[in-house]
Amino acid sequence: MGPANKSQLSPSTFWLMGIPGLEHLHVWIGIPFCSMYMVALMGNVTILAVVRAERSLHEPMFLFLCMLSVTDLVLSTSTLPRMLCLFWMAAHDITFDACLAQMFFIHSFTAMESGFFLAMAIDRYVAICDPLRHATILTHSRIAVMGAVVVLRGVGFFSPHPVLLKQLPYCRTRIIAHTYCEFMAVVKLACLEIGATKRYSLGVAFGIGSCDCFFIAISYVLILRAVFRLPSREASLKALGTCGSHVCVIVVFYSTAGFTFLTHRFGHNVAPRTHILIANMYLLVPPFLNPIVYGVRTKKIRDYVLNTLKLKGSGSC
């Protein structure tokens, strides 16, 4: 469908523009995006398979890591395949219901990602600051409850979003200047005054993100204080190395998500292409980095994978 016909789309269909001003580069932009998605897919599936197969890994850290991996798989799969169809096959149109479904998965699972980062920070705090009671504090039942709370929070706070959008009339353009459906991009197309709706969405996003970020920061401050009190310099450096890689992933997630939030609220002078590229980053980079930081850099997982590959290699000889 050409640009001249965009205004004649069916009322049940939206048109995803992609990255404004970079349409001629969509094919090339899709290559690194696809590569990151494949790494995210293989890495997170590997983590799930390894933890499931090795009973010694059924510890709080690895159980939370599995929850994070499932979240990453859903988050990346709800955006990347559709985005690549847009980049490589010029499949711009998306049905209204599919748009709402994608939007719900993106926002609710982003909230879950934030929640699992907090859960993992709490686990690291207990493991380092109170190691003797780690197993008794974070039992499997408590881990299950924490996971359920994170999931229910994400679903509960973002379930109203598609319901609100479903009830709005849309008499403006059907063009969404984005690579995927997000609440703020869709709600701008409504005919009615949507100030209260926008404030609700931004308030929920800010409330969840800022609370999680605050408690994560507190956890790592307490962890650092405990690490610097360790008698062994080697133990301190090892703990700092582990926490440092975790903090890097968390900083990438919250900085890109925070930039996207602030752009919606205040960034009227930010170029659309910049906003959209960074919005894509906070959905793509964490699922890509998490298996590397939490998986490859974790000795137990790395050793299990290497031993499995060695056994398969020796068996084929």
Automatic annotation (TrEMBL):
InterPro entries attached to this UniProt entry: GPCR_Rhodpsn, GPCR_Rhodpsn_7TM, Olfact_rcpt, OR51/52/56-like
Location relative to the cell: Membrane
Main location group: membrane
Pfam families, A to Z: 7tm_4
Gene Ontology, cellular component aspect: plasma membrane
Highest taxon in the source lineage: Eukaryota
Keyword Membrane applies: yes
Annotated keywords: G-protein coupled receptor, Membrane, Olfaction, Receptor, Sensory transduction, Transducer, Transmembrane, Transmembrane helix
Annotated TM spans: 25-50, 62-80, 100-122, 143-160, 202-227, 239-262, 274-296
GO molecular function list: G protein-coupled receptor activity; olfactory receptor activity
PROSITE patterns: G_PROTEIN_RECEP_F1_2 (PS50262)
Domain G-protein coupled receptors family 1 profile: 43-294
Function: Odorant receptor.
Name this polypeptide is given: Olfactory receptor 52M1-like
Native source species: Mus caroli
Name of the gene this protein is made from: LOC110299324
